[in-house]
């Protein structure tokens, strides 16, 4: 008798997608939407295979959230700069174009600070709140605070601070626009993969709030939170790869 097709939520460490006798492929289902995964292209999110619709839908929400946060931080910074300039003119406080230009690095620092702490309100930034995503601890799924946000955004903060020193101590920043464009493209690529460099530093991950307790966002008991080893079938409660107690 021909064996029945079975569902399989594949992880990167899981076996192939065909049955052992090679007679019929397994029915691969997306753990997020429970729809069948079609096509040969694998879309892996947090080491778990998902369908293309969920993969790109989640990535699009993260991209839009970042764009909203970036523009909101830029709007606040520019608005304060213009308000201060206007105040100097109204109060006749020795306003000159050069004096305002000298304050540009400090406006830049304000912008960097807004970016650094943007995820600090229970894992939300304005963009993430609007797009339904949230930053949480990778192992406990507890939303992060200001400290976690500061660490998580360290790579972005470091790049923006580097531009600050270039603006502050050099008269020529003509290549900064090109460098920033490549930085944004690299960041967009990392958002598609799931975790980015800052998530590794802070031990965090971004989840889709309406699917927060579904794989791949909640992998407690499925993958080791320390090394990513597949714990499917493990009954000891301890990861055999690194010895960490499973959550």
Write up what this structure looks like:
By secondary structure, this protein is mainly alpha-helical. The chain has eight helices and six strands, in the order E-E-E-E-H-H-H-H-E-H-H-H-H-E. The strands form three sheets. The chain has a two-stranded parallel sheet. Helix 1 (52-91) packs antiparallel against helix 3 (104-116). The radius of gyration is 23 Å and the shape is elongated.
**Beta-strand segment tally:** 6
Query: What's the overall geometry?
Result: elongated
Q: Which range best describes the helical content: under 10%, 10-25%, 25-40%, 40-55%, 55-70% or over 70%? A: 40-55%
- What proportion of the residues form beta strands (DSSP E)? 5-15%
Largest sheet data: 2 strands, parallel
Low-confidence stretches: 1-7, 12-21
Global Rg: 23 Å
Secondary structure elements and pairings:
Blueprint: E1 7-8, E2 27-28, E3 43-45, E4 48-50, H1 52-91, H2 97-102, H3 104-116, H4 126-131, E5 133-137, H5 146-152, H6 154-169, H7 176-193, H8 197-202, E6 204-208
Parallel strand pairs: 1-2
Antiparallel strand pairs: 3-4, 5-6
């Amino acid at each position: 008798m021909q064996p029945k097709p079975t569902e399989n939520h594949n992880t990167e460490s899981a076996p192939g997608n065909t049955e052992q006798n090679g007679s019929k492929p397994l029915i691969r289902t997306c753990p997020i939407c429970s729809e069948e995964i079609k096509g040969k292209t694998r879309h892996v999110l947090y080491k778990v295979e998902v369908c293309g619709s969920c993969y790109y839908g989640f990535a699009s929400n993260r991209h839009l959230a970042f764009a909203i946060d970036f523009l909101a931080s830029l709007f606040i910074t520019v608005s304060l700069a213009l308000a201060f300039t206007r105040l100097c003119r109204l109060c006749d406080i020795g306003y000159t174009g050069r004096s305002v230009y000298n304050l540009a690095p400090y406006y830049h620092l304000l912008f960097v600070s807004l970016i650094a702490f943007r995820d600090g309100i229970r894992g939300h930034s304005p963009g993430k709140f609007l797009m339904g995503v949230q930053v949480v601890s990778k192992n406990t799924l507890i939303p992060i605070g200001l400290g976690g946000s500061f660490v998580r955004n360290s790579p972005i903060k470091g790049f923006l601070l580097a531009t600050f020193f270039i603006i502050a101590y050099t008269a020529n920043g003509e290549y900064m626009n090109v460098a920033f464009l490549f930085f944004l493209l690299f960041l967009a690529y990392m958002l598609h993969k799931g975790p980015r460099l800052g998530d590794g530093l802070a031990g965090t991950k971004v989840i889709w709030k309406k699917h927060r307790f579904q794989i791949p966002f909640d992998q407690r008991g499925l993958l080791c939170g320390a090394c990513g080893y597949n714990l499917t079938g493990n009954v000891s409660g301890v990861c055999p790869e690194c010895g960490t107690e499973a959550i």
